[in-house]
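testing teh design pipeline on a random one, pls ignore if ur not involved
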């Protein structure tokens, strides 16, 4: 070993010892005295520190490349073998820290968005074992964290079958409505002026929320068979029983109505089809409609309205289907 290699190896040993926080191997040598006894000592140590600083400054990918390059140089240049070995020890520590950082970043949960087009339905199995069913023209975003599970309904309607986990509450945000459960089955429909939460099983907390995430006020607590219509303008909820067959019929591709005004039927059916229905005769708006309609075929739905409720449907050139009262002869 040359004198220069010996000095470089000593400098590397000093740097490795200081970076590891353990100098017991060199307790009998004072670093300052070692640097002062020969200008080459100080220069070698300063060069080593500069290289370490460069390694620390680069990003994780550049750091890995620098480390590999130094290893190749070590194989090609025998005279620098000892020095590079010392630097490699330092770089290895940086790489381990970088890998740990990247691993933590990769493992962080990311929100996932699911959506359906008009007339479509979709079933989503979440990683926690919960299942979502999306109705027509619906978009939701799910984020499953270690301490909480979140789903945001941006538009439409969804049915939730939540796997019970008392350590991870399941929270659904639908506009200004927040639903909080541990494990249950319920339906949430996001509307223009009100949101409807219908519970099939379990206990559900319904709350009023605002832009401030900490400003959440419970407005209803629902049991199986109960439904809350949350009016966002009044910030209150109306709780009542509900017809499970009607509310949940969409899950089987059906729409079920019982003495429902035609205006509400039309509004509901228009969620499923591209060609909108429109009431042309105003006095038809309150016409009570009862029956089950197949949501997979709009022509069948229109035929059923015409035959059962004395309605005539006329399709305009722009695709809108106008509903008129049939004129009796």
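output:
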């Amino acid at each position: 070993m040359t004198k220069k290699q010996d000095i470089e190896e000593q400098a590397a040993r000093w740097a490795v010892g200081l970076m590891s926080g353990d100098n017991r191997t060199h307790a009998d040598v004072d670093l300052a005295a070692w640097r002062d006894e020969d200008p080459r000592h100080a220069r070698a140590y300063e060069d080593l520190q500069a290289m370490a600083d460069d390694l620390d400054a680069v990003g994780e990918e550049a750091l890995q490349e620098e480390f590999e390059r130094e290893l190749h140089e070590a194989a090609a240049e025998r005279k620098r073998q000892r020095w590079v070995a010392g630097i490699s020890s330092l770089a290895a520590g940086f790489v381990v820290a970088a890998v740990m950082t990247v691993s933590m970043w990769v493992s962080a949960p990311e929100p996932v968005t699911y959506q359906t087009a008009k007339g479509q339905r979709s079933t989503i199995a979440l990683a926690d074992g919960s299942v979502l069913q999306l109705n027509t023209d619906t978009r939701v975003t799910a984020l499953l964290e270690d301490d909480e599970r979140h789903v945001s309904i941006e538009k439409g309607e969804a049915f939730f079958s939540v796997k019970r986990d008392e350590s991870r509450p399941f929270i659904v945000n639908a506009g200004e409505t927040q639903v909080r459960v541990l494990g249950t089955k319920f339906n949430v429909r996001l509307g223009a002026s009100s949101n409807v939460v219908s519970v099939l099983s379990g206990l559900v907390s319904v709350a009023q929320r605002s832009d401030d995430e900490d400003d959440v006020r419970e407005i209803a607590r629902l049991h199986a068979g109960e439904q809350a219509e949350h009016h966002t303008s009044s910030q209150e909820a109306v709780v009542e029983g509900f017809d499970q067959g009607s509310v949940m019929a969409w899950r089987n591709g059906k729409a079920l109505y019982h003495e429902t005004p035609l205006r509400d039927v039309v509004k509901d059916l228009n969620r499923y089809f591209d060609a909108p229905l429109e009431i042309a005769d105003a006095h038809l708006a309150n016409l009570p409609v009862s029956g089950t309609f197949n949501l997979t075929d709009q022509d069948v739905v229109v035929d059923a309205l015409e035959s059962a409720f004395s309605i005539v449907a006329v399709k305009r050139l722009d695709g809108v289907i106008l509903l008129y009262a049939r004129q009796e002869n």
